[in-house]
Design a protein that fits this description.
Thiol Ester Dehydrase, Chain A, 160 residues
Length: 160
């Protein structure tokens, strides 16, 4: 048992991570690994993509909404930083934070973590743009989506 005034590193990590939204949980399967035995880059991007669609859903920008309203979301920019290798059998999660939201776009980040060690394996920064899927031009996000995204803004994003 630790003394009441002792703070462990994992306690601090959990405190910071709890402010971010969990948008993905999964595992690294053997077929996700390349010839060097590590998860291949295409799977990092795929898991981050799933996290992105979960974020959009939390904002109300769902598949049903996009079909009904002829709207869509596109990734206008993405930056990915690899920090640690992931191996087959590793449990992973993605935690997400919003950096800023505007009338037509949202800037956000994902952190992929090794669930056993709590180490950050990769970070991606994205800019998403809301579009009219018929004209293929940027258009305003729904006000409710902007409101929900603003509630997810965090100052504690990775400075890399």
């Amino acid at each position: 048992m630790k003394p009441a005034n002792t703070i462990l590193l994992f306690d601090l990590i959990e405190q910071v991570m709890s402010e971010l939204i969990i948008t993905y949980k999964g595992i690294v399967y053997p077929w996700h690994c390349d010839h060097m035995g590590h998860m291949n880059v295409m799977w990092y991007v795929g898991k981050f993509d799933e996290a992105t669609w979960n974020l959009a859903g939390l904002m109300g920008v769902t598949s049903a909404y996009m079909k009904k309203e002829n709207k869509g979301m596109v990734a206008a920019e993405q930056r990915l930083i690899y920090k640690r290798e992931l191996l087959a059998g590793t449990l992973v999660s993605v935690r997400t934070g919003v950096i800023e939201v505007g009338e037509k776009k949202i800037k956000f980040f994902h952190e992929m973590l090794n669930e056993e060690t709590k180490e950050v394996a990769a970070i991606t920064f994205l800019t998403g743009v809301h579009i009219d899927s018929l004209s293929r031009k940027a258009c305003p996000l729904p006000q409710e989506a902007i409101k929900k995204a603003k509630e997810m803004i965090t100052e504690d994003y990775p400075k890399v």
